[in-house]
Amino acid sequence: MQTDGSGSGHAGMADAQLMNTLNATLAANPCDGGAWSTLGLLLRRAGKLDGAIACHRRGLEFAPENAGIWTNLGNALVEAGRFDEGLVAQGEARRLDPGNAAILFNSVVALRKAGRFKEALAMIDRAMIDQVTIDQTSAGRTSMQGLRWERSLIRLQIGDYVHGFGDYEARRELSAHHGRRLSARAWDGSPLKGRTIFLSAEQGFGDALLAARYVALVKAQGGRVLYECHPELRRVLSGLDVDTFLPPGAPPPAFDVEASQMSLPGLFGTTLASVPPPVGLVIPRESREKAAHRLGAREPGTLRVGIVWSGRVTFADNSRRATSLARFLRFAEVPGVRLYSLQKGPPETELAELGVAGHLVVPLGPDLEDFADTAAMVEQLDLIIMTDSSVAHLAGALGKPVWNLVQHVPYWIYGISGDHTPWYPTMRLFRQGRDLDWGPVFTAAEAALRDEVHRRLSR
């Protein structure tokens, strides 16, 4: 039986082959608890949470003392938003196997996702102090880095940037890390004095836009800056004061020190009170002309509202932060509102599936070749309403009003309460409750939109 990690994944060819093997195993022995739980693991990876939970429950019928099945069940329950049940399952797993590093890690993740931050921190602290809680295998040592990473996310979420950014570097030791490995030439934030620094890209487009505000601070340290940049962001970030732009993954020229772009907030000692303003973006003339042609003349007495309902579908947490286009259609019912889709990627197909592409929702996605094109469109819109993704960072950097509809425990820059974030002064947050129900979020956003239309059109 496989023990599930708390991060979600995607089904692939290996999973399909394993599914065939499991079906044969269960046909021969339907009382194999481990096979049932592994089937549940595969269903969870495929996003089929109800089936996954049922399979883990079936497995426990035949192996009630199997800690691995209990922690797999806990992961699936937490991902489904059934936090209390998930935490009970993780507690049972710890009771059965208290020294298991993976189970401890899954328990911490469950507490964080449930918003029970104090309990999660206490559990991590106990594990850090009492090393016997963690086995001394390589998996155990890896889990310690995972616990530091979880501690950083919690500390940043609650606004403890002073301690959070110290632990944040643990991400670079994780197997799931998307970025360059740590180097012996890591920059410590001291003056460069003519040295060359390589700033490597990490994570997604939104993270790059978030961290770009620090590039000017790096340059002010008196050195040459090599900047790794996603091609989709190259034009909109062309105003950065760097010496050389580099494509992702390319071997950099000779340099003296390096830093990941996402390490810069920590290197500059960022606190809630000292968050630098967003980076200034460049919108090329040709992108502005394309936007003006595509949007056409403004219809008198209307509010142009851009919408985005999903981030990149390959992002592990996207299923929790995203929703469907159908929910956004209630905004089209507000008199005076005209909707424009800024959505890119596979979710764009929802426009055609719902039969709304064209007059009810104007699809701008086919006209967006990069973020400079998106910025030009955003510039011409009055308001952006969206679930969290890179466009939120783009709109926030442009200083446009953006209403970000965020999940129960969102990206750490949005904190745990309130309707604003110091990272983007023009952003308004609409928060999902602990029940993970999007309904109240959209009800609140619709009411706010009606007020906004009335306010603007009554000037």
Can you give a write-up of this model?
With 459 residues, the protein is α/β, with parallel strands linked by helices. The protein has 3 domains: 13-173, Tetratricopeptide repeat domain (Serine Threonine Protein Phosphatase 5, Tetratricopeptide repeat, Alpha Horseshoe), CATH 1.25.40.10; 178-280, Rossmann fold, CATH 3.40.50; 285-457, Glycogen Phosphorylase B (Rossmann fold, 3-Layer(aba) Sandwich), CATH 3.40.50. It is built from 19 helices and 10 strands. It has helices at residues 13-28, 33-45, 49-62, 67-79, 83-96, 101-113, 117-129, 138-157, 161-168, 205-211, 215-219, 264-267, 285-295, 318-321, 325-328, 349-353, 371-380, 390-398, 438-457, and strands at 196-200, 224-228, 244-246, 257-260, 303-308, 337-341, 361-363, 383-387, 402-406, 427-431. Helix 4 packs parallel to helix 6, helix 7 (117-129) runs antiparallel to helix 8 and helix 17 crosses helix 18 (390-398). The longest helix is centred in the N-terminal third of the chain and has 20 residues, at 138-157. It is globular and about 65 Å long. The mean pLDDT is 92.
